[in-house]
Specification:
about 60 residues, mainly alpha, 2 helices
């Protein structure tokens, strides 16, 4: 077992976090800014979606 919970590789070799870190290490400011904008946009979309969902299912 050795504490492995089946979570996979936590070192990060894919995903948006890896993308930002890789761009940062390569001093690619344009990609870092693009990733920050992408993360912010996804956050706004999720916030809007959950607010709308909350209005539909809220008990009044």
């Amino acid at each position: 077992m050795d504490g492995d919970r089946g979570g996979g590789d936590l070192s990060g070799s894919s995903g948006i976090g890896f993308f930002v870190w890789d761009a940062h290490n390569a001093s690619n400011l344009a990609r870092v800014i693009a990733a920050i904008i992408l993360i912010g946009g996804v956050g706004v979309l999720m916030d809007t979606a959950f607010l709308r969902l909350n209005k539909r299912v809220a008990l009044t």
